[in-house]
Amino acid sequence: MDFYGKTFWVTGAASGMGRTVSLELAKIKVRLIISDRDKEGLQKVAKEIEDAGSSVRIEPLDMMDTPSIFSTAEKVIAEGEIISGLYQFAGISQRSLVVETPIENDRRIMEVNFFGAVALAKAVLPHMIKNGGGQFAGTSSLVGKFGFPYRSAYSSSKHALHGFFESLLAENAKYHIKVSMLIPGRVQTNISRFALTKDGKEHGQMDPGQASGITAEKAARLIVKGLRKEKKEIWVGGQEMLMLHIRCFLPRLYYYMATRIKPM
Fold first, then answer.
1. Which of 137, 152, 214, 241 is least buried, going by the fewest C-beta atoms within 10 A?
2. Which one from 4, 154, 175, 256 is the annotated catalytic residue?
């Protein structure tokens, strides 16, 4: 896929992989639309994008606000933007057991990770079809491929993304719609800091395993390389990615490990 000069919309762009993917794309001299709840963070990233030689448009967005998602997309399209790629990184994680997690936390995580991503994809899809095609990227996770302790709602939301985006692809491949699912393992971002505990509060710390993971910059290089190759799944991480093979080819070993592995 030729990215040069095209327009890409990135959510969760104020920090983490959303930020680093935006900056990696900016090196290719594209136009970026960046969204996040963090307006101040978006301003900082926008300057970095401009310094890299790409143009940028800021669209603050709360992925829990469905009406705003649709109205923002409608405005962006009405103002003449032709979106070639929608790459969604906005999300929230979890650090609590099933037995202690109130249903309100499950709903909040699903609203951000799944329904927010679905709403924006639905808002942009007709536009892409009309303009001859485009590419979606949904951010899943290692635990989007299997269950894991302390991640029940988070894992569920990521499983759901696979079902939605794979169905979207099956229905719209004839319109030159592409889909890549991003499967990050341990990447050094703030996602564990902002993960919800059983009380609905922020976890407030980076997990040791995540702290030893690959940098967000390296993850961005792998992601953009995979997107340009239009890979259906883009695996991003280190040795922990072996769990994908174990779950697929040695399921009994996976079930043994899942009940004994230290999750935090």
1. 241
2. 154
